[in-house]
Amino acid sequence: MPLSFNWPFPEKPTRYYKALSTVTIGLVGTLSRLWMKYITSVRIENVDILHNAVLHRDPKRSLITTANHHSCLDDPLLIGATMPYRVFWNRQRMRWSLGADDIVFTVRRHQRFFSLGKTIPIKRGDGVYQRPMDFALEQINQGDWMHVFPEGKVNLTKEIMRLKWGVGRLIAEAKICPLVVPFYHLGMDSVLPNVEPYVPKIGQKVSIYVGEPLILDNLVEKMKKENRSLENIRKAVTDIIQNEFEKLKPKCEELHRQHLENSSSSTSSKT
């Protein structure tokens, strides 16, 4: 089914549009960085991997970052926690993101705001060949950064769940296989609880564990030479990302446990 609103991205963005988009992204990114730095306690393992992927990768190779999804504020706050300020004010360098059309694009002003913020509306249930996914693949083929929550929804149970194949399509059908960097996080559902009245809280603890980069060129090329179907390739690369989540989850849980214990010890020593 088509989106219930007009396509929010201009075919040829004007200077005014680009300037407004830059300001929108820059302000949201800066405020997210300030929130996570000064009123949330964040511990990050291997953040240099993310920095290198965003700032120093081959400009011809796109980047896909993948993360579990525990809160409606995961993006932009996780991006704010992991990126330096200069990234937020560089529209070309800043990430694209996929967002559910029935959650973040429900009214006209939200459609305008999130599209200026480089969020692509996805219609859940419409599969991997809907127009927004075609648009996302176009950005990948231009060498851009795409952030994906491949669970496809906020995961309230925090258990490893079957990932959607959309991320697999972006990898399998890209002209140049993207660099993939997975990461896992805990604590964001305490920053914005998934219960009414949905009010963000200060002083919470968040832990982020960044995994090793995944270079999937050889696998994708091998499967194509074997005349494997695109569906098979999508499944194979999605399975690899799922396996990485399964490895990162216990590492992040241990990091978060230490984070909470250290915070408790610090509080006890002060009282």
TrEMBL record:
Record field: catalytic activity: 1'-[1,2-diacyl-sn-glycero-3-phospho],3'-[1-acyl-sn-glycero-3-phospho]-glycerol + a 1,2-diacyl-sn-glycero-3-phosphocholine = a cardiolipin + a 1-acyl-sn-glycero-3-phosphocholine; 1,2-di-(9Z-octadecenoyl)-sn-glycero-3-phosphocholine + 1-hexadecanoyl-sn-glycero-3-phosphocholine = 1-hexadecanoyl-2-(9Z-octadecenoyl)-sn-glycero-3-phosphocholine + 1-(9Z-octadecenoyl)-sn-glycero-3-phosphocholine
Residue span(s) of domain Phospholipid/glycerol acyltransferase: 63-188
UniProtKB keywords: Acyltransferase, Lipid metabolism, Membrane, Mitochondrion, Mitochondrion inner membrane, Mitochondrion outer membrane, Transferase
The protein's name: Tafazzin family protein
CDD domains: LPLAT_AGPAT-like
Family listed: Belongs to the taffazin family.
Record keyword Signal present: no
InterPro entries reported in the protein's UniProt record: Plipid/glycerol_acylTrfase, Tafazzin
Taxonomic lineage of the native organism: Eukaryota, Metazoa, Spiralia, Gnathifera, Rotifera
Domain of life: Eukaryota
Protein topology in the membrane: Peripheral membrane protein
Subcellular location, principal: mitochondrion
